Amino acid sequence: GQNIDQPTEMTATEGAIVQINCTYQTSGFNGLFWYQQHAGEAPTFLSYNVLDGLEEKGRFSSFLSRSKGYSYLLLKELQMKDSASYLCAVVSGGYNKLIFGAGTRLAVHP
Amino acid sequence: DTEVTQTPKHLVMGMTNKKSLKCEQHMGHRAMYWYKQKAKKPPELMFVYSYEKLSINESVPSRFSPECPNSSLLNLHLHALQPEDSALYLCASSQAPGGGSYNEQFFGPGTRLTVL
Q1: Does residue B90 surpass a pLDDT of 80?
Q2: What is the enclosing helix (H) or strand (E) of A4?
């Protein structure tokens, strides 16, 4: 079966660091995406990992361990505008099929 | 142009109506996708078109009928929908149907559909 787990909600303080975890069990694996989605808006691309290790892009970093079926998204220097849902999505099978986790709603407060 | 556009933004329809959702991209992408998203839930894949051909149908009821008239356009024809079909319908596109970091899916803003 296909299973992707993320925490449902997280809260953090402006300026802090937060780590959002994602564990997955899928029948195939061709990479893992992280998307950000503000309420009522489209998901926007944050990062992609296919090899083990850390990918860094400005304030955002994403880590992957294929052997553990585990990824995390690290957000540094949190800003109020980072309050959003963060979706972990695994590319499984052909045709770039994305299987999304339920998403983590992050609330950043002053 | 790195944008996926969708029309209409909002749609209210009765269970006997026929309507269509439209999606357009001009990035030269050859894969296009329809997703359904209920409130506080992740997007769920409905259809994948690869080089204008239907590649994946995730067992979607026949009251949803996709169409890809050309490489830039994707339609979703709706007929005899049920109230439980009310959701945000997202269109996405990617360079090609395979995986890879170059193959991120770009999402449109969605059409919020309400079925009465």
Answers
A1: yes
A2: strand A3-5
Which candidate from A31, A41, A45 shows the least CB-CB separation from B99? A31
Closest to B24 in 3D by CA, of B112, B111, B113: B111
Q: What's the whole-number mean pLDDT along residues B93-101?
A: 75
The CA distance from B37 to the nearest CA of chain A, in Å, is 10
**Residue B71 and residue B51: Cα distance in Å, rounded?**
7
In tens digits, chain A (110 residues) has pLDDT values of 688 999 999 999 999 999 999 999 988 888 999 999 998 888 999 999 999 999 998 999 999 999 999 999 999 999 999 999 999 999 887 777 889 999 999 999 99
Question: What is the DSSP secondary-structure string of B39-64?
Answer: TTS--EEEEEEETTEEEEE-S--TTE
Give the residue from B101, B102, B106 with the most A CB atoms within 10 Å of its CB, the best one to mutate: B101
Interface membership of B55 toward A (CB under 8 Å): yes
Rg (CA), chain A: 13
Q: How many A/B residue pairs have CB atoms within 8 Å? A: 69
Q: How far is CA B15 from the centre of its chain?
A: 20
Token pair, residue A72, equals: 């995390």
